[in-house]
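Raw record, unedited: GMC family oxidoreductase
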Amino acid sequence: MDREPTRRADVCVVGAGPAGALVASRLASDGYDVVVLEAGPRFDFSDRQERMEESIRPAHRGSVWEMGGQRDAFSASGERYYPLNVSRVKGVGGSTLHWQGMVMRLHPSDFEGSHGNGDPAWPIGYEDLRPYYAEAEKAMGVAGDADNPFAPPREEPYPMAGFPPSYSDSLFAEACESLGITMHGVPNARNSESYDGRGPCVGYGTCQPVCPSGAKYDASVHIEDAEEAGATVLDRVPVQRLETDGEGRVTAAVYATPDGTERRQEAREFVLAAGGVEIPRLLLLSRSEDHPDGLANSSGAVGRYFMDHLFAGAGGTLDERTRQNHVGFITSECHQFYDDPGRAVERVGDGETVVPASDEPFSPIKLEFLNYAGPSPVELALSADDWGDELLGDLREAYGNSIAMGGLVGQPPRRENRVTLDTSTTDDHGNPVPDIQWSWGPRAKRTMARTNDIQHAVLSELGVDISWTAGPESGGSGPAYHHMGTTRMGTDPEESVVNPQLRTYDVANLSIASSSVFITAGSMNPTLTIAALALKCADHVDERL
């Protein structure tokens, strides 16, 4: 590949993850000349089984998707250390190459700011995204069932039937029923049957970090669709900066080729789809005489309001086999505490209150019933002192009775949480690296503690010997690596970066399709909302073209 710029391009998309892929596919299919610039490589699908095998080898360390080194250097100077490279991928497909694949819609309450905790409302509502949610589910291929009484309204069934509950889900069911807690299925962007030319899930169980079969959706699917429609996709071309003219328009994306040569890609419209960290970094790197504080940053909000979901969990062992590590993804959840996180938990039989009700302000809570708790047989074998039949007996005794619950808690938007530039450290092209300044805040800690209380109630009802808890006071809690909020959407250009059409206020031909435009985090995995916003963004770009 010569990686020369396209002479005439209608649209230049920066980033080939789920947002960039969907924007490119939609606009290329509509007949526009589209160029996609991706910082990372294009991975060969035929290598996926080898990557899977590498990931489960005892000696494996690091990323099977080639993350790390000076290219991916970062700083984390905030109150809490943020381990940025643990869960991101630079390459065609982006982080969907190793994501878990859970795809839930945000609730109407998320858009309305009606959780009672003082969070701001979005400038768009659930009904604005509802048709795009449906389109995104069809595009990605979502398997799910209509058994969630707490889910937002939808217009039609999921494209595929959902996956059945796992064996450990059935163990949880009786305990949850006795506490009045409702379990339901999880919509997954993985095939429960053949769909869109891809076969059904075959149960490798290594969904994170790699699906060898291709049953789990990743954005390379829509990159290929875009190319078939005429789009040009360049890999290993990190964009160094965006150049502008004196009339408030981007004229070119300046990218570097693998040999270090810089080239300029011109276009009529530009769409940034490189995620909640690299997008604000690129805007800050694009400062100029006309934009001294960074591009699209007259509000000062670029990089600010960085949010993530926090993990809260608990687990232990049960005096029976639980069949953990047999399923590589979650098959049951509980959204009962999403819009009412302060509700009481009571035993149904005698009405005894296990977790009292509370009217304190909380973030939404999403509970998960995990299918991959406890050590793997390989881990146990490597740490054992015995061999042969004695080792086999020990493994049979020690493996398979672990069980756990997880959960996601959304962070409130806090101005002091931000992505900025660390000028003391540079990447492989001499650019300042991103610096993550991250803290939790009191409401997030309070909600994590409440999540743990509910989890302990369920596990105790089940008879679990609880041996670990990941909460606000433990070392096991951390981010879910869902980067949100750093180029927030709004109606006031003095407080936000993009308008409700996803176009930046300061630059007339620059749009952002990413979770970076989120106003609040909710507690649902963000990828389906990212996809819906990307399709909405593509429609608005089409209108301007």
